[in-house]
Each structure stands twice: as structure tokens, then as C-alpha cells.
């Protein structure tokens, strides 16, 4: 699909409005675009797939999030071709056109009881190393930004890689995997529990003095559900 084709296809999404929500909650989608289905929702954008061109993903940003769009487009341009990331084919004023990546997110894996192998953790580490090598900063790496493809990891949403500093989200996730993932043992985790943990983590300094204490609280909940 060339640029004229994807721009024409993207026009059908003009009937869709994506609105950001406070307190790090997922965006809200209003409207219907015939021939499209929503395949992902984040805190800044929603992703749609076309029935006619299923190999592409159209990431529509919420109103007021153009800075995020600009940042992600710039990062994808700098990443180029990498086995650890998707490909950006183009953009307009409100969306990016990306390669559709098959596979569940790690969040979905926990919901469905799909085993997450250690190789996926290794892949994320290698992806982070690559990002540093090209002068960017790997941030905002969490369960919904990593997909599993045949036991290997691929990272999504690279918009924060231009920001300085470490948000420690990946370090905490990796630590949780190493120390607490065996508790799950491939069993599905209820959505309400995962969503509660997500909200706790967003405000975790209100609930515990350190990450270890936070994880002890989570571990008790997981053991309770076994």
C-alpha cells in the first residue's frame, strides 16, 4: 500500500474521536469507522486495523497528544529496521501507520494464562541495549507495550524514548517476573486483579515505602487467588 492508498484508507477513521482521560486511564473512543476494528487502547492513542489492509495498524492519537505523535514518528525514523520493533510507514496530523504485529501483549498473556518464556525478557534487554546504542532512552516499557511472537518479544509504543531519565518500569517488571512469576504458574489472572495492580503501581508510593513492599502486597493477592 503506497502513501496515497493509506491516506485514502485513513480517511475512514475521520469519524472516530479519541479522547484522553485523567489519572493515566485508557483513552475513550467515540464514533464508528466502517471496515475497521479497534485492536488496542492506551493512555494516549487507540490502534485500529482495516479489513481491507490487515497488515497495517493505524494508531490514532487523542486530541491534544500531537507531541506524542511527533515524538513517536521521530523515534521510529531513528530506529529504522530492527527485529525488536515494528515499522512506521507514514503519518498524518493525527495518526501513525504502522506494520501490524501479530501476537498477544504480555498483559494479554497474563489474562489468558499464556506462558511468558525467559527469552522474552532477554529480548527486551537486547532491544533496550539497541535503543541506547542509537542515542535514545528506553522508557515506558510495560506489559501492554510488549507483544509475544513465537516465544520472542517485540516492543510497541516508543514515544517516550526521547525523554531523559529512567522511569524504572522495566526494572520493576523484570524483578517481578524473576521473583513472582512462578506464583502464577501459567494460570490466567483475573482482569480485575491486573487492573488493580496497574492502578496500585501508578500510585504505588501512596501504598508502600518501597517496591519490595508493593510486591509483597501483590504476592499476597496472587496467593489468595490460587
Q: How would you characterize this protein structure?
A:
With 226 residues, the protein is an alpha+beta fold. 41% of the residues lie in helices and 18% in strands. The protein has helices at 3-10, 66-79, 106-112, 118-133, 169-184, 191-202, 204-207, 211-225; strands spanning 17-19, 28-30, 36-41, 45-50, 56-61, 88-91, 95-99, 146-149, 152-155. A five-stranded antiparallel sheet has the order 3-4-5-7-6, with helices on both faces. A two-stranded antiparallel sheet has the order 1-2. Helix 5 (169-184) runs parallel beside helix 8 and helix 6 runs antiparallel to helix 8 (211-225). It is globular and about 50 Å long. The mean pLDDT is 89.
The biggest beta sheet reads:
5 strands, antiparallel
Secondary structure: helix percent: 40-55%
User: How many β strands by DSSP?
Assistant: 9
Number of helices: 8
What is the distance, rounded to the nearest whole angstrom, between the alpha carbons of the first and last residues? 48 Å
Instruction: Supply Rg.
Output: 18 Å
The stretches of 5 or more residues where confidence is low (pLDDT under 50) are: none
- Helix-and-strand structural type: alpha+beta
Principal-axis shape:
globular
The share of residues in extended strands comes to 15-25%
What topology, given as strand order, has the largest sheet?
Answer: 3-4-5-7-6
Q: Give the integer mean of the pLDDT values.
A: 89
* SSE ordering: HEEEEEHEEHHEEHHHH
Amino acid at each position: 500500500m503506497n502513501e496515497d492508498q493509506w491516506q485514502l484508507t485513513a480517511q475512514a477513521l475521520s469519524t472516530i474521536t479519541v479522547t484522553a482521560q485523567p489519572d493515566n486511564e485508557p483513552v475513550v473512543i467515540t464514533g464508528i469507522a466502517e471496515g475497521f476494528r479497534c485492536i488496542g487502547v492506551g493512555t494516549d492513542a487507540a490502534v485500529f486495523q482495516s479489513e481491507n489492509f490487515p497488515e497495517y495498524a493505524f494508531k490514532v492519537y487523542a486530541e491534544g497528544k500531537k507531541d506524542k505523535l511527533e515524538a513517536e514518528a521521530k523515534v521510529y525514523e531513528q530506529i529504522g529496521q530492527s527485529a525488536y520493533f515494528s515499522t512506521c510507514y507514514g503519518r498524518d496530523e493525527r495518526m501513525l501507520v504502522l506494520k501490524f504485529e501479530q501476537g498477544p501483549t504480555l498483559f494479554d498473556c497474563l489474562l489468558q494464562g499464556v506462558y511468558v518464556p525467559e527469552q522474552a525478557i532477554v529480548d527486551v534487554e537486547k532491544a533496550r541495549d539497541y535503543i541506547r546504542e542509537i542515542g535514545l532512552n528506553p522508557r515506558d516499557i510495560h506489559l501492554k507495550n510488549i507483544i509475544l511472537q513465537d516465544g520472542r518479544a517485540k516492543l510497541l509504543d516508543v514515544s517516550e524514548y526521547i525523554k531523559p531519565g529512567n522511569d524504572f518500569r522495566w526494572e520493576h517488571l523484570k524483578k517481578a517476573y524473576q521473583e513472582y512469576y512462578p506464583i502464577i504458574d501459567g494460570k490466567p489472572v483475573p482482569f480485575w486483579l491486573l487492573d488493580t495492580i496497574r492502578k496500585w503501581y501508578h500510585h504505588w508510593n501512596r501504598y508502600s515505602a518501597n517496591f519490595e513492599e508493593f510486591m509483597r502486597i501483590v504476592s499476597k493477592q496472587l496467593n489468595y487467588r490460587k
